[in-house]
Amino acid sequence: LAARLQGFGTTVFAEMSALAVATGSVNLGQGFPDTPGPAEVLDVARAAIGTPLDQYPPGPGLPVLREAIAAHVQRFRGLVYDPGTEVLVTAGATEALAGAMLGLLDPGDEVVVLEPLYDSYAAGIAMAGAVAVPVPLRPPAVEPGEVSTAPWTFDPDDLRAAVGPRTTLVLLNTPHNPTGTVLDRAQLELVAELAREHDLLVVTDEVYEHLVFPGSEHVSVAELPGMRERTLVVSSGGKTFSTTGWKIGWVCGPAELVTCVRTAKQFLTYVNGGPFQPAIAAGLGLPDTFFAGVATELAGKRDRLVAGLAAAGLPVVSPQGTYFATVRVPGDGLAFCRELPHRVGVVAVPMSAFYLPEHAELGRDLVRFAFCKRDEVLDEAVARLTA
Ligand code: PMP
Ligand code: GLN
């Protein structure tokens, strides 16, 4: 294995999903829904298969999808992007993020990133030869058997201290995986202030933009003054439309920055997902009530699982957004997650996987459970955990 990729073995998601299958466990590890997405989306993909849409789409993505992405981001964020030059379709948000790192960073550049961090970030930064500089997000205190609704949060001084002479980019994620925290306007203002002061680029991963629960509001840092011009906004259809296997993602930003990502993308996948592109375009055009409904339904699932985890005696942090609730376990989270399927038939993921190797200790006793599952599946998991 190349030196750049030392330490990046098999992802914990793959390991835990395989363990779920092997043990017949309820899989609350990898975050993917277990019900199909909206018929308005699925029907378009079905109809597209067997047509010329099976062939290579244009490099930046089908115009119908780029236009739908631009209209969607204008509707929900008030941001205007030119679908011709400022929108790029990618193979999931994963490729948009890796492409941004490869297209924007030089070896030795520093990337400020909230930790815990989604596992592909550290790999993307490493593949670009750059260096991740973590800013810790810390969980609220919570007693066993209780639920905290306070968010994981960072200390503004830690963020300020992370920016140095080699910093070129801040990589944000809101709503945040794995903590479920939704960054508020004041936190984003601080990022914006630092970015403007130090002339930094920002890449913001907003794949959970519609999975935000009552009481919280999704704000994109690109909406703040002086930020659109230095920010790439990354999202994906996977979570919003329950199509995580389709891998239709995108990035919006000023043409100059989007071109950097496109340059990398051309030689990673070139293009992707022909028949799925018009389908995601149809989804992005669904009425506001659809998007609100996604969040409302998921909020109910959050409450169901969070109450069940607390009933099982765990200290639980209830998230403001995403698919995930986090708990502290007695002892080692990785050992706990490797044992749980055999002991009770439930799979979760250890949060040590979301920390840089040198900080794995910070996440050692933390575990993430996904609640994007049918109610009966959540109930079964809770019954097994409380038994
Ligand atoms: N970013 C975050 C924070 C995620 O949780 C995920 C999905 N697990 C991705 C990116 C990847 O999205 P996609 O499947 O569209 O590549
Ligand atoms: N984003 C999902 C999660 O965090 C899926 C991750 C993956 O399989 N790479 O669970």
TrEMBL record:
GO molecular function list: kynurenine-oxoglutarate transaminase activity; pyridoxal phosphate binding
InterPro entries tied to this protein: Aminotransferase_I/II_large, Kynurenine-oxoglutarate_AT, PyrdxlP-dep_Trfase, PyrdxlP-dep_Trfase_major, PyrdxlP-dep_Trfase_small
Keyword entries, A-Z: Aminotransferase, Pyridoxal phosphate, Transferase
Signal sequence region: none
Cell inner membrane is among the record's keywords: no
One Pfam short name: Aminotran_1_2
Residue ranges occupied by any Aminotransferase class I/classII large domain in the UniProt entry: 26-385
GO CC terms of this entry: cytoplasm
Keyword Transferase assigned: yes
Essential cofactor(s): pyridoxal 5'-phosphate
Family membership noted in the UniProt record: Belongs to the class-I pyridoxal-phosphate-dependent aminotransferase family.
Protein name per the record: Succinyldiaminopimelate aminotransferase apoenzyme
Organism whose genome encodes this protein: Klenkia soli
